[in-house]
């Protein structure tokens, strides 16, 4: 049962979903446009596929491994500001470091490091953020919250790709990282405000079990 029984208004629902706009504005241009464009200038043409595969493969390990770990840890992360919000706030800001590394990359190694950095911290923020809706949304409004999530996902991805295309046309492709960073921070703010009150009830620790055993069970 959700900890909140009051009906949430449309504005709070929209604010709760706002960071999904930011995350999709973040991921789609990076994954489909920016990395491929930058790699062409940094690696030999005949080795392009190998370098791209190494980067994407390493990033996928973080993308798969980080969310369940951070999600489970956030269940027991008790602070005066909640369980999830401190993780969302800190990791979204730390993600800016990775965006800066990628924006200024003059070598494959720097681009690779920046990409792994954002895979770590953006996925950590996303994992904590995914747990906010069950914490603050009444059970009967989960469908509405999921609908808002889907809309923000689509709008964020579309806006991110369109913005990157415009910047590419103006030969300012790397400035997309500045816009991406700004959008993620600006969409984080209403999400944090709307999720106030999450994590105020301490979760009792159950028997300790390894994470893999928990997932398998």
| H-E order | HHHHHHHH
**Residue runs with pLDDT of under 50 for 5 or more positions:** none
**Strand-residue fraction?**
under 5%
Structural class: mainly alpha
CATH-assigned homologous superfamily: MFS general substrate transporter like domains
The CATH architecture term is: Up-down Bundle
Mind explaining what this structure looks like?
The chain has 217 residues and is an all-alpha fold. It has a single domain (10-199), classed as Growth Hormone, Chain: A (Up-down Bundle). Helix content is 74%, strand content 0%. The chain is globular, with a radius of gyration of 19 Å. The two termini are 23 Å apart.
Notable traits:
217 residues, mainly alpha, Growth Hormone, Chain: A, 8 helices, 74% helix, globular
Task: Describe how the helices and strands are arranged.
Blueprint: H1 10-42, H2 48-75, H3 85-103, H4 108-130, H5 132-136, H6 142-169, H7 176-194, H8 211-216
Helix pairs in contact: 1-4, 1-6, 1-7, 2-4, 3-4, 3-7
């Amino acid at each position: 049962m959700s900890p909140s029984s009051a009906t949430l208004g449309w504005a709070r629902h929209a604010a709760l979903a706002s960071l999904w706009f930011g995350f999709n504005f973040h991921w789609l241009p990076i994954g489909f446009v920016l990395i491929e464009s930058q790699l062409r200038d940094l690696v030999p043409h005949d080795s392009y596929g190998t370098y791209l595969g190494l980067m994407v493969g390493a990033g996928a390990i973080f993308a798969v491994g980080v969310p369940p770990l951070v999600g489970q840890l956030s269940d027991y992360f008790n602070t005066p500001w909640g369980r999830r919000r401190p993780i969302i706030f800190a990791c979204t800001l730390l993600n800016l470091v990775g965006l800066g590394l990628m924006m200024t990359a003059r070598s494959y190694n720097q681009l690779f490091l920046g990409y792994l950095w954002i895979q770590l911290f953006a996925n950590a923020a996303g994992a904590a953020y995914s747990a906010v809706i069950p914490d603050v949304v009444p059970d009967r409004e989960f469908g509405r919250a999921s609908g808002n999530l889907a809309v923000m996902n689509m709008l964020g991805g579309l806006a991110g790709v369109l913005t990157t295309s415009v910047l590419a046309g103006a030969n300012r492709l790397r400035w997309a990282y500045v816009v991406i960073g700004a959008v993620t921070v600006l969409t984080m703010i209403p999400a944090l405000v709307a999720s106030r009150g999450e994590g105020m009830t301490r979760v009792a620790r159950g028997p300790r079990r390894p994470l893999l055993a928990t997932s398998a069970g």
